[in-house]
C-alpha cells in the first residue's frame, strides 16, 4: 500500500519530521511518500495560508493518483483542501485534525487541543464544530508560539507545550491531548510519557486510519458530494488543473 | 462606497447578470464593481471547483484593497474563499449563501434552499451547519440542473426551479426560499411573484449587508482569526501572493 | 423610507439617545421616527418587564402601519415583542440583540455580549440559543449595573463597561463585543476606539439591516408563522387590539 | 394545595373543559382554580395573540399570589407568559407544552405533537428548540383546524385528530403523541384508547408536575433570571402592574 | 400506589436514607418500597460498577412487576439500567439524575450538578447530553469525595459539598444545584437553607414524578423502543432472566 | 497483536460469521479471537437484551486482559458494555456502531443506517446522538426483520436489506450505508457491489480501527472516566466480578 503524506507547507525540515513520524507507525507493507507541494506558504497560520496550501494539497493528490497512491494524509492541523482532495482521490483522504479527533474519541471521553498561534484558534473551533466534536472537545489551548519555532534549535517550545498539556488534564478534565500542529509529530511519545496520558499526533493517527480504510476496501464515496469533479474548462494559470472526463 | 462583487467563476455572462442584480439594489452613492477572476473554473459545482475559485476570490480582494474597495460580496452559493478573503480585507466580506440565510432569518422562521446539481448538496449542508442555521433550514432541494443551464436560451430551468420553490412552501412549511446559485440572481422578483412568498437572492442581499456594515463603520475584525496574514515567503507560482508586513 | 425605532421602555432620555444613534447611521432618504410606548416599564430588566414592553412595541407597530412605516427596530437587547410585531408588520422588524448578533457574525468568528444587571443574563442566553448563535457567542458578561445608571451624570458606568469589553477580548478570545443594552447606543465609537476591536451597537445595526431588507423588497414573510393575525374578538382592556380581517 | 389553572384565552367553555381535566387528576388535597383572564383573545393562534394572552396570564398569577395559590399551570400549548409569570410566583409555574414534553420524555423515546392551525407550527418549533427537546420531537403535525372548532358540536375535528395521531405512530415512529392545544384536554383517554399508545395532555400533566414540585418544597428559584421583578414605575394603562418592592 | 425505590448499590445504610427521603415526600396513598439488589457493587463510581448495578435494578423491577409495583425510581445519579428497566415495567421508571434535571428545568434557567468522585464526571456529561440538557447545565462540579464518605460519621463531606454548591451560584450563575448522588438525599433541606437557592434531590424528585405519571395513567410507552422484551432463550447464569412471551 | 472480537450474543453461528469477517481484514500479524460470552441472550433486540449482553462483554474483556489481548471489538450494533469495558481494558475497545460511523465519516458526507427490528431504532438514535453524529446520519432504516433471520437458509432477508440500502442512496441522499447488525458482517462486499456505494460493516471496521490504535501505542486513557474501576466488594452472584486493587 502506498500512502502519500502531504505536508501542506513548503518547509521541508518539517516534511521530513512528518515523514519520519509516518514511517514509524506504518505497517510493513506500507510505503510512505512524504512531500511538500512545489508552491505555497512556508507555514500555515490562518485561513489565507490555508487557501493556498489547499491547492498544493490538490496538486499532490492529482499526482498521487497518477503515481498509484492508495490514500492520503493531509499533515496540517487545519486540514486544508480536504474536501477538494476527496473529490479527486479514489482512495481515502484524511486530515490530521480529523484523524486525531477520531482517535481521541475512541479512547476517551474528552480531549483538549494544544496548538500554536492564537490566531489559528478560529480554524480549530470551526473544525471541531464541523466534525461534530463539540461535546468531545474540552478546550483549545493556544501557546501563541509560531509554527516554525518548533523547527528552531534551542527553543523552549517543547517545555511550554508540555506545560499546557498538563493543564489540559487538570484544568479542563481532558483525558487526552491532541497535538495541534504537524510540526509536533515527533513529540507524541515524549509528551505521553511526560503527562501520563495519551498525547495524540494526527500524522501517525492519519496514516493508521488510511491504512485501515484501504484494507477495508473503503475509498472515498463517489456518490454525492465527493464524486469526481465534472469536466469543464479552467482559465488562466489554473487551466492545467481543469477536470477532465 | 465601492463594493466589489466577485463572481468566483469565469463565466462573464453570469458576472454581468450578477453585476446587474447588484446595481439594481445598490444605494445611490454605491459603486458596484462586478468581476470574475482571471483564472479558475467556468462554473462551480463541488469542493474541487471551490478550492480554485477561492484563489481567484482572494486575488480580486487583494486587488480590491489596492483599488480602494470598501467591501466585497462573494457571489457563489458555496461562499468560496470567504474566511481567507476576510483576513486581507479591511472592510466586510460577505458570501451570498451567508447573506441569504441571514436575510431569511430576519423575515421568517424557516427557509428552504433551492439549488442546482445534486452533488452540491454537501456544500450547502456544510454551510448551514457552520453558520448555525440548522434549526432555520427546512430543506435543501436540488433540481439537478447544471449551473450553466441558467445561461442557456430556451432552457426550461426557470419552470423547474419555480416548481421546486412552490413545493418548498407546501411540503417543507418554509416561509421563504433561498435561490441557491449566483446564476439565479435575476429571478428574485419573478419567483417572489410566482410563489407569493419571499424568494431571496444572495447577491442583492450581500450588497445591502455590505453597505449596511460599511455605513456602520464595521469592517472585518482584525483581532483573532481574521487578523492580517503574517508576512512570510510563499514558494512557486504562489510567490506573488506571499503576505507582506 | 420611514423606519420607526421603538425604545420599548418609557424613559425618553434613552429614546432620544437611541434616536440619535439611529439617525447618525441612517441613509439620506431614511426618516427615523424614534418613540417610546405610551405605557409600560421605565426600564426593562427581566421577563416581567419585557411582557409589558411587548404590548407597547405592538402598539407602536400598529400605529406605524397606519403611519406608513416601512420597517421597525425594537431597541431593547431582549428583543421584546419581536415575533408578535412581525405578524402585524408588512415590512421587516428587527430586534437589536438579533441585529448585533447578525452583524457580529458577518465580521468575526465570535462575540461576547457585555450588558447590565446580572438578572438579565437568562434573557440573553435564551436569545443566543433561539437565534442559533451558540457557537458564535464566547461569553455573556454582566456588569451588574442597572439600566438607568447609563442615564446618570457622573456615573462610572462607562469605565466599568469598557473594562469588561477589554476582558472579553483577552479572556474570552472574542473578536467583537456586543453592547447589550439600548442605552449603550452612544458608546459604539468610543468603545471601539478604546478596545481596538469592533464594539457593535444593535440600534444602529438594526437600522441598517432594516434599510437593507426594505431596499431588497423584503418584508416579513406572510406565509406560516408571521402571517397577519386572524380576525377575532379580544375582551377587556385589550379589545381595541383585536385583529380585524 | 391550591393550583390555579389559567386558560390564557377568554373562551370560558374551554376554561371549563380545562378545569374539568385538571380536577380529574388532582390529588385529594388539591384545590383547582380554573380561570380565564378578564382581557385578551378568545383563542390563541399565533405570536400576536400570545403577547396579549401573556398579560392576562400575568394578571392571574398576580392575583393568585394574593389568593395564596401554591402553583400555576398555563393552559395554552404556546406557554404564553411563562417566564414573566415565574418572576412573580413564589411557587412553580408550568406551561402545558413544557409539561407534556417533559412527561413524554419520561415514558418514551420520541413524541410527535398534533395540533391545530398550520400557522402555530412556528410557536411549537420555537418551544421544542428552547426546551432542548429537538432530539425527542419526531414531528409536529398540524391539522389546520381552528382552535375553536374543538368547541363546536358536530365537528369532525376529533376524527381528524385521531387519524393524525395514528400517522404519528406509523410514519414518525413516535411512541407517544402530545395533544397540542388546551382545548384537547378532554381527549387524552379517548385518543390513548384509540391509538394504543400514550396521548399526553399538557393540562393534566401540568397539574401533576406542579403538585410534585410543591410537595418537594420547590418553588421558582429566586436567584438569577426568575428573581422578583425590580420595583420601578410603569406608565399609562400598565401603571397598576408596576412591580413594588 | 406502590413505588419501588431502588438503590442500585448494595449498601443498605444508604438504602435506608434513600427510603426515608422517598417516604418524606410520598403522597398519603403511596407505599414506598426501598430496596437494594441482592447482588452488585457496594457503591457506584464509574461505568463498570453501573453495568452490574443495572442487572440488580432489572432484577428488582422484574420482582416489582410481580409484586404489583406501579412505578420505579432508580436511586443512583448515573441512572443505571434505566432503558432496560423501562422495557419490562408497565408503569413509569425514572432515574434520579433525570428526575433532578427535569425538576430543575421547571423552576429555573440553569443548574449545576455537584457530585462526588472526579471519575464520574464522564457519566454525568453523558447524561446531560443524552437528556437534551446541555443548554441548561451550567457546570458539573466534582468534590472528589468517595460515595461512601457520605455514610461516615464525623466526615466533613457536608461542609465541602455546601461550599461547592455556593460556588455554583456565584461562579456558574446557576439558579439551582443538583445533588449528584443518591447518598445526598438527606441534604436537600439543609443545603437549600444554607445556600438560599433550590438544592434538588433526585430521589424525592423521582418519587413525585413517578406519582405524577401514574396518576395521569401514563406508564412507559409500549410502542417502539420500550416495548416488552421479545421472548428468547438466555444462556448460562442469565437463563432465569430470559424474557418470556 | 491479539484482538478479541466479542459477539455479545450467544449464537455461535453468528460468532463464526463475525470471526470470519474479522479475519478477512486482519493484518498478517494480528490474531483474531472471536467469542461469545458464556451467558446472555441469543440475540440482542432492545435495551433489556443489551444490559445482559454488557456483562457478557465485560466478562470476555476481563478474561482477555489475562489472555494478553491488545484490543477488543464489541460486535453488536448497539455497542453494549462499551464504556464499562473501557475501564478494564488497557488497550482500545471499539463498538461496531461506533466503528462504522467513524469510518463513514472519513469517506463521505452522510450515511444511512440499515438495520433489523423496528424496536431497535431507539438504540441507534441514542448512539448517533451520543457519538456526535447527528449531522452525519441521514436516516435510520429498519427492515423489521428479526436478527436471527440473517442466519436462516432460504430467507429473503438479503434482498430486503439491499433494496433498503438502495433507497438510502436515492431517497436519503446518503453516500454510504452502515450495515446495522453484526449478523450482516458477511454482506459488505456484496452490498457494496450491488448498490455501487460503500456498505460499511462495523466488525471489519472495528478490527482495523483497533489495529490502528494499538499500532499507535494508544490504549484507553486511564485518566478520568475510563480509569481502572476502584477496588470494592460486590455482593451476590457478581462477587467474582468485584474490582481489585
Automatic annotation (TrEMBL), chains A, B, C, D, E, F:
A matching Pfam family: Asp_Glu_race
EC primary class: isomerase
EC number in record: 5.1.99.5
Catalytic activity: D-5-isobutylhydantoin = L-5-isobutylhydantoin; a D-5-monosubstituted hydantoin = a L-5-monosubstituted hydantoin; D-5-benzylhydantoin = L-5-benzylhydantoin
InterPro entries documented for this protein: Asp/Glu/hydantoin_racemase, Hydantoin_racemase-like, Iso_Racemase_Enz_sf
Example GO molecular function: hydantoin racemase activity
Membership in a protein family: Belongs to the HyuE racemase family.
Name of the protein this chain belongs to: Hydantoin racemase
Protein species of origin: Kaistia nematophila
Lineage, top ranks: Bacteria, Pseudomonadati, Pseudomonadota, Alphaproteobacteria, Hyphomicrobiales
Amino acid at each position: 500500500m502506498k500512502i502519500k503524506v502531504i505536508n501542506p507547507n513548503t518547509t521541508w525540515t518539517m516534511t521530513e519530521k512528518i515523514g519520519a513520524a509516518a514511517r514509524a507507525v506504518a505497517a510493513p507493507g506500507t510505503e510512505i511518500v512524504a512531500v511538500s507541494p512545489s508552491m505555497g506558504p512556508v507555514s500555515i497560520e490562518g485561513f489565507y495560508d490555508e487557501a493556498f496550501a489547499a491547492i498544493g494539497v490538490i496538486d499532490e493528490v492529482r499526482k498521487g493518483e497518477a503515481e498509484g497512491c492508495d490514500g492520503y494524509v493531509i499533515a496540517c492541523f487545519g486540514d486544508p483542501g480536504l474536501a477538494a482532495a476527496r473529490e479527486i482521490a479514489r482512495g481515502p483522504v484524511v486530515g490530521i485534525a480529523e484523524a486525531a479527533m477520531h482517535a481521541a474519541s475512541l479512547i476517551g471521553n474528552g480531549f483538549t487541543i494544544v496548538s500554536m498561534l492564537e490566531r489559528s484558534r478560529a480554524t480549530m473551533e470551526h473544525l471541531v464544530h464541523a466534525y461534530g466534536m463539540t461535546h468531545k472537545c474540552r478546550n483549545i489551548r493556544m501557546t501563541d508560539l509560531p509554527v516554525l519555532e518548533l523547527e528552531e534549535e534551542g527553543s523552549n517550545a517543547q517545555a511550554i507545550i508540555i506545560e499546557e498539556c498538563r493543564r489540559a488534564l487538570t484544568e479542563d478534565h481532558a483525558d487526552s491531548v491532541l497535538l495541534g500542529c504537524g510540526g509536533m509529530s515527533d513529540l507524541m511519545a515524549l509528551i505521553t510519557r511526560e503527562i501520563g496520558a495519551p498525547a495524540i499526533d494526527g500524522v501517525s493517527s492519519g496514516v493508521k486510519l488510511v491504512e485501515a480504510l484501504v484494507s477495508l476496501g473503503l475509498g472515498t464515496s463517489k456518490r454525492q458530494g465527493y464524486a469526481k469533479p465534472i469536466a469543464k474548462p479552467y482559465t488562466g494559470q489554473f487551466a492545467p488543473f481543469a477536470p477532465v472526463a
